[in-house]
Every structure is written in C-alpha cells, then in structure tokens.
Write a structure and sequence with these properties.
By secondary structure, the chain is α/β, with parallel strands linked by helices. It has helices spanning 23-35, 48-54, 58-71, 114-123, 144-172, 192-204, 230-251, 271-281, 292-304, 306-321, 323-327, 344-348, 352-359, 370-377, 380-386, 388-396, 398-419, and strands spanning 11-15, 41-47, 79-85, 99-103, 129-131, 140-142, 178-182, 211-213, 258-261, 285-288. The chain has an 8-stranded parallel barrel, surrounded by 5 helices.
Length: 423
C-alpha cells in the first residue's frame, strides 16, 4: 500500500469547538504539551450534525484553526477532521478538511453480498486456524464459524468505507488526507480476531487507514467518565494494539496505524490504562474529547458573573424545559437521572461557584453533578439558537473562558494520557 504524504504522528487529540471561538485556547494546551516534552498533534473535529445544529459550515473550523496556528506561531502538523462523515455528507467537507472519520455504523450488521464474502475468504486463507500475536501469551483460534459471522457483520460496512474513501481520494488526491475508520458504534466490543478480519478487509479496499476506532467494552457517555472495568479496557486495548501490529505486517497497512479511542468525552478513569499501554507497547493513540470545550465556555461564562452567569442559567433552564427533545439524538451515549436535575428556579439563585462546581468535571467534588453536565453537554442547541447573544458574550469574556478551555484540555486530557499525570 502506497505511503501517505501526510502522517498523523504517534500522539494526537481530536477536540471539538462547537462555536469556532476556542481554537487558540485549545492550541495553547498543545503548546504546553510541547513545553513539557511531548508532541501531540491537534485535530479539530466537528460533525455534520453539529454544523447543521449550529448553522455553520466546515470552512469555519478550518478558518479558526488556521487563525490559531498563525497567532501562536505553531510550526508542527495540525488537521481538521470531517467527523462521522458518510457518502451523503462528505461533499461539504472535501475542500476544508484533511482528516476524514469515515463512519459506517449504519452498515454494521448488514449482510455482505455472498460473492464479496466468498472472495474475501479465498483471499485470506491465513485467517483460519491459529494466530499468534506478539506480546500475547496464548494464540487465537479462528474458526470457520467466527470468520463467517465476522464477515457477515462487518464486510458490508468495510465495503461502504471503501466507497467513501475513494470519493475523498478522487477529490483530494491519494496521500493528501488522513483516513480514519470508525467501527465503535456497534453492540459489543470486537475481539482481536474480529479486528484482524476487519483490518484485512480494509486493506483489500485499498484504504491506507491511519487510525481505527473499534468498540471497547464499557459505556462511553458524553461529557462524563467511562463506566466499566478499567482493567478490562486495558486488556482489550493491549490485544487490539497487538492485532494492529500483526495486520500492519501481514497486509502492508500504514506502519503508523494506531487506535482511536473515539467514544464518549471525559474518559478519565481509563486514561492511566491508555498511558500504560502506550508505555508498554510503544504504540500511539488518537484520543477524541468530543464537545467538552462547549462546557468550558459555559463554565467560563458562569465564572465571569454578571451577564455571563445570567446567560448560563438561562441556557440551563431552556435545556431543562426541552430535556426530551435534546436527549433523543444522544440517547445511546447519555445517562441522565432526572431526579438529580435541579429546577430552573433553584439554578436561578445559584452563585457562580455553585454553577461552576456542579458543571466542572471533578469527580470527587461534592457539588459535581453528572446529570447536569450531560444535559448541558447536549444543550448546545440552545446556545446556537441565541446566535449573537451567545457569541457576543463569548467574545466579551474571552480571557476567563480561554483559561478554562486550556486548563481542561491540558490538565484533564493531554497530561494524563501522554505524560502519565493524574487527572
């Protein structure tokens, strides 16, 4: 497989910026990482759904990123990710983006055409019997039944990924963008054997994938911590790293192919496991932090007091009154307990400290409220409808917001994962 002109690098973080006002503050976190001795590549990501809700265009993400890079004199690589794109949504991202997360979740589980499955099986006699992965004590056995079931579940999705990839390639040119394949939105975690079969199919499709997002066990909710067994996650990540290393050798996939820990947002309790796995194996990782920057904007507004605090309270009240509407699109990735949501009247009397303490993600803080955080995480639609009212206050309170954005991204995400510091 031809080498890509663009290389993502060993360590990278995908971070959202709903309203395209925090790119400079976000990039400052990567500057801090560099000053701490580690290069982490920034990737600004925003999905089509988010652009539709905000009423923005993908070019706005690129413009914000370029402006931040210029302002901070950033000389290292950076990318703009067309997040969760499909054949139906990719076109508007082609010009401004150079990283494409190909989302084939809708095709996982759809039966592949028999001829396609048969051809795959014939091409890969090695995917039968015993497979030994470097660093794994016991070999894995691939039975005919496992291969058939995996092919039926994933081959149609991989074929669709190939179609999307070729559409991007025809517009951008081979090697001029970073391809990621997202396989995390399925019912259960993939085994190393299933990941091997998926990667063999990706190679057959000619996709020079640089990151792949598999499904891990546990629950990855938006805006809050991972729910599950961190030790089991570490075991699964280690096996996936070994499977990727095998696939790179066997199928001539890019030698910098790495895992994307894609789902959820603030996966704090598994950050030590990610760091330990990278230290032990020498692997890299692409970490996605989703929309937590928007929550730092709310925290900054509340911290600023005055009109900022008043608007933050108004956003909460509106989000609470539209609870069901806001939550439906995210039902699989949020877990809000309505009994834990304070009334709008109660929040109206909160101080800045009460608001920020409820929202800021500090697990052991007595006032932290994960249901409030999840509601506001999906409530960015409320701020979007406010238009200039919201944007004007962001700009008026830039300094206090920027401080929160930078500290959150560096202290709670980059430092624990890449420097091994505690959250």
């Amino acid at each position: 497989m031809a080498a890509s002109k663009l290389k993502l690098g060993r360590f990278s973080v995908g971070t959202g910026d709903r309203f395209a006002h925090q790119a400079k503050a976000q990039l400052q976190a990567y500057v801090k990482a560099l000053e701490s001795g580690i290069e982490v590549v920034p990737v600004w990501n925003k999905s089509n759904r988010e652009h539709v809700i905000i009423g923005s265009e993908p070019a706005s993400t690129r413009q914000a990123a370029d402006a931040a890079v210029k302002a901070l004199n950033w000389k290292l690589p950076y990318y703009c990710d067309a997040d969760h794109i499909t054949t139906l949504t990719v076109d508007r991202f082609l010009a401004p983006c150079d990283f494409f997360t190909i989302d084939v979740a809708d095709f996982i589980g759809q039966p592949a055409e028999p001829a396609y499955t048969e051809a795959f099986v014939k091409r890969h006699p090695e995917l039968h019997g015993s497979i030994e992965l470097v660093g794994v004590d016991q070999p894995f056995e691939i039975t005919r039944e496992t291969r058939s079931a995996t092919a039926q579940k994933f081959l149609a999705a991989v074929k669709k990924a190939g179609e999307v990839y070729r559409k991007i390639e025809s517009a951008k040119g081979a090697g001029n963008f970073i391809p990621e394949v997202s396989m995390d939105e399925t019912d259960r975690a993939q085994s190393p054997v299933e990941l091997l079969i998926i990667l063999a199919a990706i190679a057959d499709e000619g996709i020079p994938v640089q990151t792949i997002a598999p499904k891990f066990s546990g629950r990855f909710n938006k805006g809050v911590d991972y729910v599950g067994d961190a030790a089991q996650f570490e075991l699964e990540m280690g096996l996936d790293v070994a499977a990727i290393a095998y696939a790179v050798r066997q199928y001539s996939l890019p030698d910098d192919l790495k895992l994307s820990v894609h789902s959820g947002s603030d996966k704090f309790s598994i950050y030590p496991a990610i760091h330990a796995t990278m230290q032990r194996t020498g692997a890299g990782v692409h970490l996605k932090t989703a929309g937590t920057t928007w929550l730092e904007e709310l925290i900054g507004l509340a911290e600023a007091g005055g009109d900022g605090l008043a608007l933050a309270k108004e956003i909460y009240a509106e989000a609470l009154s539209h609870l069901e509407e806001l939550c439906v699109p995210y039902a699989a990735v949020i877990d809000i307990n309505p009994a834990k949501l304070p009334s709008a009247e109660e929040v109206r009397h909160w101080t800045s400290e009460q608001y920020t303490s409820a929202l800021r993600h500090v697990e052991d803080a007595p006032a932290y409220n994960d249901s409030v955080r999840q509601l506001l995480h999906v409530g960015f639609k409320i701020a979007a409808k406010m238009g200039p009212r919201y944007i004007n206050l962001l700009e008026a309170n830039e300094s206090v917001i920027a401080k929160n954005v930078t500290e959150n991204l560096f202290d709670r995400h980059i430092a624990p994962v890449f420097l091994g510091r505690s959250v």
